[in-house]
Sequence to fold (492 residues):
Amino acid sequence: MRIAIIGGGIAGLAAAYELEKARTAGNPLEYTLFEARARLGGSLSSVVVDGAVIEQGPDSFLTEKPAAAELCREVGLGAELLPSNDAARKTYILVRNRLVPLPDGLMFLVPTKLIPTALTRLFSIKTKLRMGMELLLPPRPSGLQDEAVASLVERHFGAEAVDRLADPLLSGIYGGDAAQLSARTVLPALVKMESEYGSLTRGMLAAHAKMRAKAKETAKKNGTAPTAARPAPRAIFTSLRGGMQQLIDALSARIAHASIRLSAPVAAIEKTADGWKVKSGGVVESFDAVIFASPAWAAGVLLAPVDAALGEELGGIPYSSSITVNLVYDESKLGRLPDGFGFLVPASEGRAMLAATFVHRKFLGRTPPGKAVIRAFLGGTKNEALLTESDETLVAIVRRELREILGEKIIGLAVEPEYTQVARWRRAMAQYAVGHQDRIARIAARVDTLPGLRLVGNAYDGIGIPDCIRLGRKAAKELAATVVQELTSSQS
Fold:
């Protein structure tokens, strides 16, 4: 079997790695990975400058999703896994140009502690009263139409909670707009809680009560104290000591060099009676299967001549762009930065920045002593025009806004960064818009009619690095399994 992989980001590399494992185990298969750029890794890209790790794309992955850490361990990077410094974790929201910390007990959009919620300056008295009354909401019928996250949050906590909480948090994760993102896809647990409890606060408290009861039951069975049954909380994020580029390099080293084609964009795809034809660099090659690990919009363009309906559905998945700006400072020249990891900026503040991370605090040991790294995020669905600005302009915008937000005593005009770096990621982040699950079901139905076709990446079932790895490996395993089945059938 010959398999083409289109796209050399983390999903495509995970698929290639899995196919290489199958090939070296004796499975009669070949694969070719086509990557349009001159490098592998997609948006995973990091460099080390004077001992400081500079992430140009994602800086970490969610610890609770195991696929990324498992792959890191498989390729010899277990000792390089680095948890986030959650002991110092504190995040601020910019409100009227003041940094307000997220209150304690906030479980992703849902307040669960009365006193911190009552005392926070993040919300007005009207919103706090709304949050208190939310406890009385009755269950909502299940099976209703999908809705936007903003609609769900506003129904429970009011418009201010959307502006100061939901929108900046989701913008930081998806680079998207809470008024467009699908509640059923992005926040399925909250949708389920609403149908069961009505109040999201009551639902979240009930979920925690069940977890505590389970821990006590486990302790009772094991004959240990309840506290012993409760493991220390895992860090929310995990990264690699030398940057996420380490994973790309480790995977690349384990994939047959002859199977990788860089600077090789695919120009056309054709479905044949017994497989697929792939055209790249003026050469047409035949394959038994194709794994599309490119963005959905790019896959849609290539697959439209094969299946117009499939191409249209893929092209209908919206994407946003993002910009990262890294600034390295001599810490002795800065004033004291606010405690914690950084801050998020609501759209209502009228800033270019969506967020800023104090990198040297988030992951210890990746920045030399005496240096501070601030990473700013710009772009998103609401400010794509920034992509056309020069690096110098973007750095100037970030420096000005940091001075205005943090204050001249911390970052004055005279404080020059020692190093600056700008990265643009055009149409890189898939947006799970309202109706996303229905669209994915229609896409799956069309793919089922095209033997040998697999779609992987951040547009389908999770946008994070672990999700892309999981989907890439799953597609490769499925295709490798068909080889085994065919061999078994021919021998019987």
User: Anything to note?
Assistant: Residues 465-491 form the longest helix (27 residues).
